[in-house]
Amino acid sequence: MKRTLIETVRVINGRVPLWSLHMDRLTRSCAALEVTRPNVVEPRGGPDRVIRFEIRSGSLQLLERAAEGTGPIHLVSSPAPHRGYRHKTADRAWLQAARSSAMMAAADDAVLFTESGVLVEGTRWAIGWWEGEALCFPALSLGGLPSVARARLSEITRGGLRVAELDGSAILTKPLLACNAARGVVPVGLLDGTLMMQNHQTLALQSRFWNRPLA
User: Fold this and answer.
1) Which of 44, 59, 137, 190 reaches 20 to 30 Å from 107, CA-CA?
2) pLDDT in tens, 56-109
3) Tens digit of each residue's pLDDT (9 = 90 or more) over 131-154
4) What is the three-class DSSP state of 65?
5) Digit-coded pLDDT (tens) for 159-215
6) Cα–Cα dist 140/118, whole Å
7) Cα torsion through 128, 131, 136, 137, rounded to 10
8) Residue 121 burial by CB count (10 A; 0-12/13-18/19+): exposed, middle or buried?
């Protein structure tokens, strides 16, 4: 079966600050899924925007959309368990169904857990949480996507990221952040209708997220 890979990149000031991280992930996924990688060139110039690359067996399609804001987002817990999403492919119907249900509940995204109730990720966001001064993310062995935004946070977070486990029964007690390569870092303001605690370090990371040296 032919697979379609996706890379969604943010153009800021005419460049893609996270380009090398995107290409690293794309190279790994092409090798793992035996997809012939086409020549993918970094977009240059133009307005700040989001570009979605769709790669399928040597072919390439680009779709553009406007960039969105960085304000707090509202999440809801999905009743459906996470199925595993180790490569960013177009096989996302189950993720889209979870997100559509969340949007019907006036939320921005759904958070998915393992069958045993351990946090994995959102449908469009990597989800982390603060344990004091430490920023934690779920282990990728749970089946979540190797997020480009998470990789960027590992570069700018003091002491790096801590891999940990967060049970759904405890998630409301933690300051959460969400990140992706289209919008950067945003606080989680509400989860399942509950006002979430905040950590000032989230906004500090948000302000540094895109300031990456370019080749």
Assistant:
1) 137
2) 987 999 999 999 999 999 999 999 999 999 999 999 999 999 999 999 999 999
3) 999 999 999 999 999 999 999 999
4) strand
5) 999 999 999 999 999 999 999 999 999 999 999 999 999 999 999 999 999 999 887
6) 12
7) -50
8) buried
CB atoms within 10 A of CB 171: 23
Phi, psi of 65 (to 5 degrees): -150, 165
Please report the pLDDT score of residue 1 as a whole number.
Answer: 60
Residue with tokens 């992706």: 180
- Gap between the Cα atoms of 181 and 210, Å rounded: 10
What letter does residue 142 receive in the DSSP assignment? G
Burial (CB count <10 Å: 0-12, 13-18, 19+), residue 116: exposed
Cα 202 to Cα 118: distance, rounded to the nearest angstrom: 22
Q: Give the end-to-end CA distance of the chain in Å, rounded to a whole number.
A: 36
Tokens of 38: 């086409």
> What residue has token string 């040296």?
213
Rounded to 5°, the CA angle 199-203-205 comes to 105
Cα–Cα distance measured from residue 4 to residue 6, given in angstroms and rounded to the nearest whole number: 7
pTM of the model: 0.96
